[in-house]
Amino acid sequence: MVQLTHDLLAQALAAEADDLVESAADAPFEQREALVPAELHGQRFDKAVVAMAPEFSRSHLQGLIEAGHVRIDGVVQTTASRKVRSGQMLALALVPTAESRAFRAEAIALDIVHEDADVMVVNKTAGMVVHPAAGNWSGTLLNALLAHHAGAASLPRAGIVHRLDKDTSGLMVVGKTLQAVTALVRAIAAREVSRQYLAIAQGDVRPAEFSVEAPLGRDPQSRIRMAIVAGGKAARTDVAVLARAIGFSLLRCTLHSGRTHQIRVHLASRGYPLVADAVYGGKPALGLARQALHATRLAFAHPGNGEPLAFDAPMPADMTAGWRDATDPQPDCG
């Protein structure tokens, strides 16, 4: 390949596409090669790569470097800040990002509680991510919905109108048409969708019934946590104690808003973190490896005909076994 000037590098690469791109039979993504021009001698590696693929963001190309998809003179280099020399051969593999591959159908089994032409109600298992995000670009509820019905591909977020945390199990409603999605979003915003949860909290929760009304926002000390913060979004959780055991309480929590981590934060703020909720101070116990939270009841008006609908999902096996352990009589060691 002839040496390229910096200004003409991108144009030349496009014009010589036949030389620079492998056939589809050989590779599923584009390959580009170019010599480092004189004006980029001594410049950062990532700057030279940007000149090769100016249509992509610098951060994306830096990610390709770090992932080992760029070579200098045939050797993989992963340090974006290293300096390049005039005449070196750069080879770039434009591997699709995880994000670009995330919105694809995957045949994943779903526990469907109800389905009609407008809506689905799904009993989500603990461990399933609802929507693709960093670290979880596949195996999500969205991927499953895209495989379940063709119309999901034309809907915002495949019809998902609210979320559950990855390790929270239970009921979710999903729209199957744009009209249904719009109606459900409006109903949730107007607090016309009733959502109740079962939770196992640490401690002897008192009183038997109370409400926590405190605004929630991102924790200024940690981006993975939410917190009660001035100026946060209004949030209210009603709590009722269903049963008590030594060191633990079984609770019913009713949402009047649906903020991220709402129940987890509100209960932890009262000194009653959920069992196994390490993010908010809960300790592993009762054999549970995930926060003890389950969306047990969901009620809303059907977005098509207005018929009132209500669904219940009993506490899943892990939480049921955990509560059984909490309430089993302790052996007499005397």
Would you summarize the structure shown here?
This protein is of the alpha+beta class and 334 residues long.
What's the arrangement of secondary structure elements?
Elements: H1 9-15, H2 17-20, E1 30-35, H3 45-52, H4 58-66, E2 70-72, E3 75-76, E4 89-94, H5 98-102, E5 112-115, E6 119-124, H6 141-148, E7 169-175, H7 178-189, E8 194-202, E9 209-213, E10 216-218, E11 226-228, E12 236-245, E13 248-255, H8 262-269, E14 293-301, E15 308-312, H9 317-327
Q: Could you walk me through the main structural features you see in this protein, from its secondary elements to its overall organization?
A:
With 334 residues, this protein is an alpha+beta fold. The protein contains 9 helices and 15 strands. The protein has helices spanning 9-15, 17-20, 45-52, 58-66, 98-102, 141-148, 178-189, 262-269, 317-327; strands spanning 30-35, 70-72, 75-76, 89-94, 112-115, 119-124, 169-175, 194-202, 209-213, 216-218, 226-228, 236-245, 248-255, 293-301, 308-312. Strands 5, 6, 7, 8, 9, 12, 13, 14 and 15 form a 9-stranded mixed β-sheet that branches. It has a 4-stranded antiparallel β-sheet with strand order 1-4-2-3, with helices on one face. The protein has a two-stranded antiparallel ribbon with strand order 10-11. β12 (236-245) and β13 form a beta hairpin. The longest helix has 12 residues, at 178-189. The N and C termini lie far apart (86 Å). 33% of the residues are buried.
